[in-house]
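Appendix B, Record 12. Input sequence as logged:
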Amino acid sequence: MRYLVLATDYDGTLATHGRVNDETVAALARLRASGRKTMLVTGRELNDLLRVFPQADLFDCIVAENGPLLYWPATGKEQVLGERPPDEFIKALRDRLRHCPLGNRNVEPLVVGRVIVATWHPHEIAVVEVIRDLGLDLQVIFNKDAVMVLPSGIDKATGLSAALSELNISPENVVGVGDAENDRALLDICGYGVAVANALPMLKERADFVTTGSRGAGVTELIDKLIASDLRHQY
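Logged structural output:
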């Protein structure tokens, strides 16, 4: 086999409205039965992910928070790859957002994870202003309406690379699949990059292959091609 690992995004790729359908769950099980490994590479916080997707054991590793947190379901081991932005940044941003409500959104205006700090469009301007005012070395990464703040140099590619190093597998032996801006780093590091049919145009342009199906149906389509031919007909 050339491709030993499937690395997939969660929201908008594996999941539809936060949930993974039974057909896609079964496809992941088939892929593992074929002798390949699976990795979930997501912008979600780990606890939030495990709440909506209890089948975490379908993955050899979960790269959470858009890169800085690795979770190994088989052992429960966690590895943190970066430091959370300082408390002064979180306080300043929270104070700023208090005066800029998100309207009727049923979401928290600011999410603070193990490393990630996240909010929503249109608050990226406030985020950039606070980073500038405090002179911090932080980066802003977009995922459609999500606005994520992470230490510079940490993204889905660095998280996946760290996980692969633990398994002694080259990124060239990985198929990556996603749908949004923050998945560009994921596709760029993988030996073969795939965009699901509902992906943003900019990601489709970067991909080696675009699925016919959207979201979970697209991932299932990709898995079936991997099992049947190791994607030999695609390159």
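Residues 24 and 220 are 6 Å apart (CA to CA).
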